[in-house]
Amino acid sequence: MTDDQLSQVFSALADPTRRDIVARLAVRDATVNELAEPYDVSVQAVSKHIRVLEDAGLVSRTRDAQRRPCHLEAEVFDLMTKWIERYRREAEERFRRLDVVLEQLKDEASEDGTTQEGQAS
Amino acid sequence: MTDDQLSQVFSALADPTRRDIVARLAVRDATVNELAEPYDVSVQAVSKHIRVLEDAGLVSRTRDAQRRPCHLEAEVFDLMTKWIERYRREAEERFRRLDVVLEQLKDEASEDGTTQEGQAS
DNA sequence: ACGGTTGTCAACCCGATGGTTGAATACCGT
DNA sequence: ACGGTATTCAACCATCGGGTTGACAACCGT
After folding, report:
1. Rg (CA), chain A
2. Domain check: are A31 and A81 in the same one?
3. Domain of A84?
4. Are A58 and A17 in a shared domain?
5. Does residue A79 sit within a domain?
């Protein structure tokens, strides 16, 4: 369900320009032109970037005459954070458990001389 | 400094297969063949995926004879989490502040009949 | 009604990416 | 030394993604 969205979000944030846009939108809402100004690419390019962020659900837009103010959506970040935290926690726990395994390995190594870095199953 | 790495990490996790690999590595270390088994793509393709994860610093590999066990690295997740959390917090705070602005707008609207969704600067 | 501003659409270019297959490398076991 | 296993390298192909430019649409201000 959210798997595809997750891909879109990660993919959207993989681009430095788009991350910068997110950073600036975190401070205040802005129009396409305002956002485009600091970069030396065309407005069209920035428009595309914003489209990507919008499709990923990171940005929403309202209408103000011919302007399209962009607004950062916080919820989607939760989605990512949850995903990341899940595996970070598991990985860290495994890392902690590793201490025990290492002790064991050290014992076995001193038995048969296996000084290598191998972590046999 | 870490900007490029951040791009690599996000980009690496934008692929569902790679996210799945990460998920599985969170449970236990695994070799390329083990990782490749469930997917119906070639082992070479999976090897490439792992390369991407490795370059992004998400995975490290040891050597066990001809095998290359993959291990999930937790630290890089922190990098991402920090980045995300920063903007999520800012965005949420702005969201909270928005309540005040909305009140103001409502007042202004009842004055001059601007019933639109506009959030003028 | 007209000119200027804001933004998008369309077509195109090019480099990156994910996939393939086939050959090469590295190591084990016997 | 040899065959089998695990993995990577190399060449190739199709698609995607970010960039461009040029035209179009929508809207304001006067």
Report:
1. 23
2. no
3. 74-113
4. yes
5. yes
CA of A12 to C1' of C26 (A): 39
Give how many domains chain B has, as a whole number. Answer: 2
Decide if A120 touches B, using CB distance below 8 A.
Answer: yes
- Cα separation of A35 and A28, whole Å? 11
Instruction: Say if residue B101 is exposed, middle or buried (CB neighbours under 10 Å; 0-12, 13-18, 19+).
Output: exposed
What 3-state DSSP class applies to B37? coil
**A119 inside domain:** no
Report the distance separating Cα A66 and Cα B74, nearest Å: 46
D16 nearest neighbour residue (CA to C1'): A11
Window A:77-96, CB contacts with B under 8 Å: 77-78, 80-81, 83-88, 90-92, 94-95
Statement to judge: residues A16 and A47 lie in one domain: yes
pLDDT tens-digit series, residues A57-92? 999 999 998 899 999 998 999 889 999 999 888 888
CA distance B11 to chain A (A): 5
pLDDT of residue B97: 73
> What average pLDDT values come out for chain B (121 residues) when binned by 10 residues?
88 98 96 97 98 97 94 92 90 75 57 40 29
Q: Which residues of A touch B90 (CB under 8 A)?
A: 26-27
> Both tokens of residue A41?
């690419």
- From the list A4, A62, A81, the residue facing B117 with the nearest CB is A62
